Amino acid sequence: MLAVICTTLFSSYKQENPLYKDAKQPIEKRIDDLLARMTLQEKVMQLNQYTLGRNDNANNMADPVKGIPAEIGSLIYFGSDADLRNQVQKKAMEQSRLGIPIIFGYDVIHGFRTIYPISLGQACSWNPALVEKACGVAAQEARMSGIDWTFSPMIDVARDGRWGRVAEGYGEDTYTNAVFTVASVKGYQGKDLSSDKNVAACLKHYVGYGASEAGRDYVYSEISSQTLWDTYMLPYEEGVKAGAVTLMSSFNDISGVPGSANHYTLTEVLKKRWKHDGFVVSDWGSIEQLRPQGVAANKKEAALKAFTAGVEMDMMNRSYDSHLGELVTEGKVSKELLDDAVKRVLRVKFRLGLFDRPYTPATTEKQRFYRPESLKIAEQLAEESIVLLKNKDKALPVNNVSKIAVIGPMAKNQSHLLGSWAAQGKAEDITSIYDAIQAEYKGKAEVSFAAGCDFDGNDKKDFEEAKNIASKADVILLFLGEKKSWSGENASRSTIALPQIQEELMVELKKLGKPIVLVLSSGRPLELNRLEPLSDAILTMWQPGTSGGKAIAKVLSGRVNPSGKLAMTFPFSTGQIPIYYNHRQSARPNQGKYQDIQSTPLYEFAHGLSYTTFQYGDLKVSATKLKKGEKLSVEIPVTNSGEREGVETVHWFIQDPVSTISRPVKELKYFEKQLLKKGETKVFKFAVDLKRDLSFVNGDGKRFLETGDYNIIVKNKKIKIEIVD
Ligand code: NOJ
Description:
With 725 residues, the chain is of the alpha/beta class. Helices cover 29% and strands 18% of the residues. It contains 20 helices and 27 strands. Helix 4 (82-95) links the parallel strand 2 (74-77) and strand 3. The termini are far apart. Bound molecules: 1-deoxynojirimycin. 1-deoxynojirimycin is lined by residues 60, 107, 151, 204, 283-284, 489.
């Protein structure tokens, strides 16, 4: 009798205090315990993501999901505080049989409320440590607002400025993307994913989305296996090594096999070779889209293809909740594969601490947003992202003038400075460029304003007013650029020139004979060949976010010396696209030029000037002949030869002139940024790891280090080394 009572008591204790709810147990044990209790339907529900709250992204519109099921695995949360989120979480915890918490995701791309420059701008700072801090702030603001998971970083190497999403990535170079991937993953996830200031990262869009043909969105992409590994895989590999717990499968196909149905990339490489133990979420609708892409006849087949390829979570396709259970019952999807997928999702939830602390504590906006430290980082990152493209006769900085004309449609516009995917950023919280310039020159110069024209259209009625104030000024600061909706998702352009009305405004202003400083804000590199000759100086500030106005004012006055360098080539003309620095070698390097225009870009990758000058000394290597496995160190002295302190980034490239698979003309392998005082010389060093830096991958990702000659290149200096057996 006693035994019966004890067994009954014990089993009811086990019912109420199951092992998976015990925070002291190891995560893997908790997962196994929970999985063993789940029904097929409960398992399937963990693999679906719906939305919650207001959604104003035109590309992501969906019917409002009424009556969210308590068993749902994930929701995209469009809110900016924890309240609604916690209400739905309560439903999951209390009304579902097992009380499995929901994971709430959102696109926190370059900040949550405090908005940082777009990722392309961030890359131009060449300051991954600062980007890590910015991502840390984004994570803190998001997690405290109820978001556990960001769909960021976007690490698609992109070489076609017509593609709107170049704004979201770290530019044209593979290594650069890899470095900033690691920085952002560390920033988002921190050391402890379960802390209330960190979020899960999501590497996207796996893989090759940046190769969308002709810069159009959602279309096909032609990627050979060699190019896949040479160009697109490294950022993902590094991101996985850095601990990113999720990835998003892409819309594009890899030479006919869609990213969301690609067994090779998703399972063979990611899960088996790289041993990723988190999960993959589809992009919005990318499973359903396997039908129009021509690899699935219906939604059920699409679900089968995506799931068996290795996509664990369905973002807004409603294909897994509709068909996965049936596919398992029919034996088309194995129970093992289903269990593995569910375990991956649960693993991320456990690591986030959601089982133990499912609710987001209520806080005020003041406690979460615009903390002084967050704003400081935003301002510094905006400053460091700005690139000085041209500075004829030291037209910049602008001081010792009494009248400044601020002209252009961007000068008073706060909203477009935020850029696309600006999460919960608010335009009204931003100091406009004009207001920041007023404050910067207060008591020193009179600042007047005229927009001159709109961003596009044909209305020239305000040209006269602009010319009138410009004619009275000592210098014209002209703020042109792109609206935020002109870049981002589904925002391709056939030309990357500015609309004609903006160019015409500049032509008219030039007639006044005053110095013109052109300041650009855009989500992509621009075609500037008609504007460049009209400008005395050109700055690009990208879409700089919350503190952009202040940052540009400080650069214009010279309080900040610009140090950004381009992470993406500015072509001379749109017709040159694709144009990027690390193209393969040509059969006839001196021929094959364009007949009508120069064949070189207007501003090449890594170009960026300063208000001071830097002299590069001679390259020195520790050895010129090495065996594989030996260590090599290269150094170069750099002297600040100008009149003020400045920051210089040294980019180290390698060149492999002869190899079994033709290599790019040069490849970035390392960069370093240092502050140099006036007159100071600093030695920049590159510790070359032969295997890592001089090897190359084949079409299946295998690395080779070949014997022979290599060049190490910094600016226009080159030094040769030889690797022998
Ligand atoms: C579609 C976009 O391609 C992706 O980047 C984004 O994360 C999802 N929508 C969710 O908003």
